[in-house]
Amino acid sequence: MKPHISVCIPVYQGASTLAATLRSVLASECADFEVVIRDNGSTDGTGDVIAGFDDPRIRSIRSEETLPLPANWCATVEQARGELIKVVCADDLIRPDCLASQATLMEDPTLALVACRRDFIDGNGNVLTRNAGLPGLLGRHGVSEVARVAVRFGINPVGEPACVMFRRRDYDAIGGFDGAIVFAMDIDAWLRILTRGDMIGQPEAHAAFRMWTESFSSSHNRQQLGEHLRFLKQVANDPRYEIPTVLRHLAPAAAHVSWRAWAVRQRLWNRRSTAKAG
Question: 58-62 and 139-141: which strand pairing?
């Protein structure tokens, strides 16, 4: 019998954090779920971490070939058997009530996606900021509203994969994650999924996003900024999203400001984490 929910964990060199991620998922109050882990050719002992969990809900796939990050995400979801999908990166966490609360909301067939707020944590699991995210997106919203917030603030306003639940059929219908867009791969997918239904933004922080030196999202460089600007321009000019002219013109400036503000925030968090460690 197929599970109702598939929690998909693509992992590469995740030995230091994967156990905490798995424990958080396996502690979920929802009973009807599977955990699909795809090890993308790790050489750091990730396989040993997975082997240390004796739980029938876990299905582990080991690849000897290391695929690009987007391809590993897609390959992991491809193995999922559930109707509902949540992707959790191997250094993030979800709370025990996350799956159940989001699956209940997804019983509404007019919804395509549910997203929650999240806590930011450091490499040691210390909370840096609580209950962050979903600016202007609590409650029910359509794709145009979400796209406008993305362009207005120059960010991913929906959140990282651990915050989000969606239907497998909608994911397949849009063609999955787009490997040509790496840094904005998640918000790109969320917007395309939202062309198939509305979203609900939950006020609770049902997930935790880890900010540390090994996190892909913690690195900010010119290449990533360039990709982000191109993506926002594409969203701003897409007629499906009905972005007002003034927002289209302001999008590049908003993105630059958000990018710099995020970098400053990370430096402050790093100082706080270093102070705690000392």
Answer: unpaired
